[in-house]
Every structure is written in C-alpha cells, then in structure tokens.
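Entry for the shared binder. Reason: the reviewer on the internal report wants the predicted structure included alongside the sequence.
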Amino acid sequence: MTGRVISVNLGIVTEAEWAGDASGRSGIDKRPADGRVHVHGEGLAGDFIGERAHHGGPDKAVYAYAEEDAAWWAAELGRRVAPGAFGENLTTRAVDVTGAVIGERWAIGSAVLQVSMPRTPCTTFAGFWGVPDLIKRFTVRARPGAYLRVLGEGEIGAGDRVEVLDRPAHGVTVGEVFRALNLEPELLPRLLHAEELPERVREKARRRVAAG
C-alpha cells in the first residue's frame, strides 16, 4: 500500500490549566484543515504553537503520527482518537513513521520534508487527554511519531502520497533514538552516527556515553 497523508491538522488556541505555556495557552488541539496548506520553514501556515521553547522551530516544523498507532491507542483507552489528537500536523497511513531513518527525505505534495527526531511526551499532552499516566504509557509504547524539517516549501493536503526520496546509510531510526534516550541507554552510541539529528540531541547522547 502506498503511504499517504490522510489528514493535515492545524492547532487552535486552547486555554487550560494544563497548558505548558506561561500564558496558559496551547496548540496541541489540532483539527483537520480544509483544502491544501502551505508548508514553510517554521511549520504549517495557520498552525498555532503555544510553547515555542519546546515546540516548533526548524527541527520540529512538522509533526507526523501514524493512523495505525493511533488505532492502537483507541483500542487501549476504549475511546475514539481523531486525527490530530496527538498534536500531529500530519496523520499518515501505511507509513512506517517509527521505522523512518533520521535524515530520510519525504516528498509530500509539492513540499520536501526531512525526518529529524522523535517526539518527547510532555505534561501538556497528558493534560489534554486527561490521562495522568500518559507520559509513562506513551514512553513504554515507544511509538512516538516523527518531527520533520522543511527542506522545500510547498503545498500539502489530505490524500497526498508520502514518497521516500532517499534514506541515509547509517540506518538510525526514529524508534531507536526514542528508545536510546528513554528506555535503552545501550543504544546511545548509535545516535552519534546520525549526523542529521539536531545537535542538541547528539550532544546529550555524547554526554551520556561519556558518563558511562
């Protein structure tokens, strides 16, 4: 089956006590957009991002999450999980997001995106879902979704194919990075081979490797 985007989701302003931003506003509640959406270097046009210290920016411009992983959570929690419920901009189908190699490039619509790093769950996520132990459960599940850089601006929309243009030879995946940082420290040396990881992530791996 050809990988596709089934929904492009944009954040709305949500004010809540659990919002991580000092202003009490969050953009984690993302809703499917009508029509095509412009993708630029900082993300999607019209997407509200509340806590910019931890969200958005070139290395986290776009967040993708797999429909198949969302279905697992729907069964686990016994409730509907709609597109955008993970705070993702792109809900995908038949795309191995967790198995994507750091640095691989995706052509979607007229845009070119690059896999940069996994998502790290936060208290805002748990508050939005109303599941107090969600961070722990999300971490153990280790299907975090992928942040993407924008290498080429363009327009994307629901139904667009996700075409992998190339894949770095180092083979370090989104899932490996997440597990190395959160569950399996023995994987940390692998991260040093993935030059496309954000430098702050590689530096964290170096420090932990050096500390033994």
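Summary line for the report: The longest helix spans residues 199-211.
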